[in-house]
Amino acid sequence: MGKTTGFLEFDRKVEAYVPVEERIKNYKEFTKPLKATELKNQGARCMDCGIPFCHSGCPLGNLIPDFNDAVYQAKWEKAAKILHSTNNFPEFTGRLCPAPCEEACVLGINEDPVSIENIEKNIVETAFKNGWITPEPPIKRTGKKVAIIGSGPAGLAAAQQLNRAGHAVTVFERDEKVGGLLRYGIPDFKMEKNVIDRRLEILEKEGIEFETSVNVGVDIKAQDLKKDFDAIVLCGGATVRRGLPIPGADAEGVVQAMDFLPQNNRKVDGIPYQGEELSAKGKNVIVIGGGDTGSDCIGTSIRHGAKSVVNFEIMPKGTPDRPADQPWPFWPMRLRTSTSHKEGAERVFSISTKKFNTDKSGKLKSLTTVEVEWVKTPGQRPQLKEVKGSEKDWPCDLALLALGFTGSETTIADQLGLELDQRTNIKASEANYKTNVPGVFAAGDQRRGQSLIVWAISEGRQAAYHVDSYLMGQSNLPLKGEGDLPRI
Ligand SMILES: Cc1cc2nc3c(=O)[nH]c(=O)nc-3n(C[C@H](O)[C@H](O)[C@H](O)COP(=O)(O)OP(=O)(O)OC[C@H]3O[C@@H](n4cnc5c(N)ncnc54)[C@H](O)[C@@H]3O)c2cc1C
Ligand code: SF4
Q: Where residue 387 falls among pLDDT bands split at 50, 70, 90?
C-alpha cells in the first residue's frame, strides 16, 4: 500500500486555511486544497502496516489503506469506488469528521499519522468534479414501502441503502429542507450547504421521496405511518437540549446554541426564520460549553462582529499530546483547538457558571463563575469541587448555552409504544437496530444519543441491512467489516 518508503520521505501535510482576518468576513468554507502531487505523496505515506488499525478506528470501517494506495497511484476513480463502498457521504465526513482513524493510524505511534480525512475529501471532490458520482437507482423494485423519519446523515444513509435494495423509500422531515444538523446545526464555514444539495439531487434521481415540513407525530400520527408502510426507521436525532438551571437562566440574552446556530444558518441560506433576530454584533459573548457546538457558536459570533468572545469549559485543560493513560490506538481526550478557537476566542477551563446577573429590565449584564477542580479517588469517577474564594464576574450581554443534548423527543415513542433507554433515546439493540415494536427500527443520535456524523452514517447503513433482512428474509446490503473490495 502506498510507497514502501513514503513515510520516510514525506512529512504529513494537510489543507491550509485562508487567514483569519479574511475568512471571518463571510460564511464560506476556508480551506485551500492540496495539489495533486501533494495528495499523491500523502497517499504514499500509508505504510502497509499489515493490520490497519485505522479500519477499526473508523466507525464506518472505511478501507483506508486501499484508497490511500489508489491515490498514490493516481487512480482516483478507483479510490472513489473504494471509498463509496463503505461511506455514502464522504463529502460530509471528509470535511467534518474528527477522524478517529488518524488517532488509530499505526504511523501515528511515533510519527504524524497519514492525513486520511483530507485524502477522503479530495477523493470525493475529484469524483464529483469528473462526473463519476451518478444516480444508481435499483434495477428491480420489491413492492415494499419504508418510511424514514428524519433527514440527518443517519436517515439519508439508511434511505440510500434501502432504496438500493429496491424498496420504495419516503423520508419525512419536519424542517423545510433536508439535512438535519448538517444543514441547521453546522455553520456554512464548516460545510457550505450546496454540498448537501449536490448529494440530495443524486438521492432524488435514485428515486427516494422527500416529504419536508412534515412533523411526524403531529402532522401525521405515527400509528398511521405504521399502517401505510412495511417498515419505519426512526432517525430523528437527539434533539432535547441540556439547560443550565441556575439563577437568571431566563434572562434576556441567555440563548440556547441550537436557537442561535439554526437561525444563522437560515439567514445565510435566505430562509425566513421565526422569532427575534439573535445577533452577537457588538456584544460581549460568553459561550458555555467547549464541544463542537460551542466552537460553532464562537465562529458564528465572530462573524457577527462580537465585541469579545469567551469560551467556558468545565473540564480541565488537556494537553495537546496523547495522555499516558489513553494509549494508542484509542481515541484520546487531548486538548483540541478548532479553527473557530483560533479566530479570537479566549478559552477558560475548569470553570462553572453560578449565576446570570441582569439589569432592572431583565437584560443579561454579567455572569458569576467559580473555578472548579476534579478530585480523583481510586475506583470512583472524578468529583467536581468548587474552589473557595474563586468567584468572578464576567461582563456579558449574550450567553450561548452549548451544553449538549440530554436525549431524544418522545412523541413518536409514546404513539407507537416504544421502549426508551435511561436517557430517553429509543431503545434498539446495536445487533439489529430493532425496537420492541416489530417493523420499527431506530438509528443515529436518536438511538445512540448525541454523537458524530460518521456514527450516524454507519448506523443508517447497518440499520438498512437489518430492515432489508426483516422485509425480505435476507439482505445483500453490505455490513460493516464484511464483504470484499468492490470489483473495479
Ligand atoms: C452545532 C453542532 C455541530 C456539530 N458538529 C459536528 C462535527 O463537526 N462533526 C461531527 O461528526 N458531528 C458534529 N455534530 C454532531 C452531528 O451533527 C450529529 O451527531 C449527527 O447529525 C446526527 O445525525 P442524525 O441523522 O442521527 O440526526 P440529526 O442530524 O439530528 O437529524 C435528525 C433529523 O430528524 C428530524 N426530525 C426529528 N423529529 C422529527 C419528526 N417527528 N418528524 C420529522 N422529522 C423529525 C430533525 O428535524 C432532523 O432534521 C454537531 C452537532 C451540533 C449540534
Ligand atoms: S469517516 Fe472519519 S474516521 Fe472514517 S476514514 Fe473518514 S475521517 Fe477517518
A: very high
Strands 405-407 and 240-241: antiparallel
The predicted model scores a pTM of 0.97
In this structure, the residues whose C-beta lies within 6 A of any atom of ligand 1 are 96-97, 149-155, 172-175, 180-182, 185-186, 215-217, 235-237, 261, 292-293, 296, 412, 444-446, 451-454, 456
Give the pLDDT confidence of 107-134 residue by residue, as tens digits: 999 999 999 999 999 999 999 999 999 9
Q: Which atom of ligand 1 is nearest to the CA of 155?
A: 25
CB contact set of 171 (below 8 Å; sequence gap of 6+): 148, 149, 150, 151, 155, 156, 159, 178, 208, 209, 210, 211
3-class DSSP state of 348: strand
What is the C-alpha to C-alpha distance for residues 476 and 488, in angstroms, rounded to an integer? Answer: 19
Nearest partner of 456 among 187, 213, 234, 241, judged by Cα: 234
Residue 406 backbone phi and psi in degrees, to 5? -90, -20
Distance from chain centroid for Cα 328:
23
Residue nearest to atom 6 of ligand 2 (CA): 117
Instruction: Output the CA–CA distances (angstroms, integers) from residue 465 to 133, 169, 427, in the order listed.
Output: 22, 14, 18
What pLDDT is recorded for position 485? 58
Within 305-449, strands assigned E span 308-312, 346-348, 351-358, 364-375, 383-386, 392-395, 398-401, 405-407, 440-442
Q: What are the start-end ranges of the H helices in 328-444? A: 411-416
Quote the Cα angle for 253-254-255, to 5°. 100
